[in-house]
Amino acid sequence: MTVLHTFAPMAAELPPNTVLSSVRSDLADNHVAAPKGVNQEKLAAIVAEARSEGIPLSVVVVPGNPGHDSSLRDLATEVGKSTDGTVAVFSDDWVGTYSDSISRVRLEWAEDVAKYKGNHPEEAVQAFVDRLEQPEGVPWSVITAVLLTLTALVIAGLYVVKARRGPDADTQVAASTDRADVGSAK
């Protein structure tokens, strides 16, 4: 029975004083949920711009920093279960994300520039959106294909060289070595 507990998934840990139903209802009007004192209009404008660029974004701002940054991702995931698109949860220094359309690698790439903005969620959200709107950095699939093609060409070239050398070349090398040995023995 203890084996089942060992492999059971952990329950989502939401940031302190977070009521999921309140967050969901706050997102309903402009895709932004933030506490009093945060410029919701500016955040809503950034989110609306991202949505017009094809990024279905919803933003949640929580005050301070929770005990663990993973609770922001847990909150984003819980909100994302009832929302299509991408959910980004911002605290003072951390970001947690969920998306049904953007890869985890790309999300974390965007998170990197949005972290540690202090009590400036507008800057953090703008940095996050700007990074998501950038074209992907390195086209790894293209680089991999080129490297595989080059490797195959090198192998084929080595095979052709070896085939041309063939057994006749080995016989000629051996015969010339024998002649050299005979000549040196005289």
UniProtKB/TrEMBL annotation:
> Which Pfam families does the entry link to?
Rv1476
Membrane-crossing segments per the record: 140-161
**Alphabetical UniProt keywords:** Membrane, Transmembrane, Transmembrane helix
Please give the superkingdom of this protein's source: Bacteria
Q: What is this protein called?
A: TPM domain-containing protein
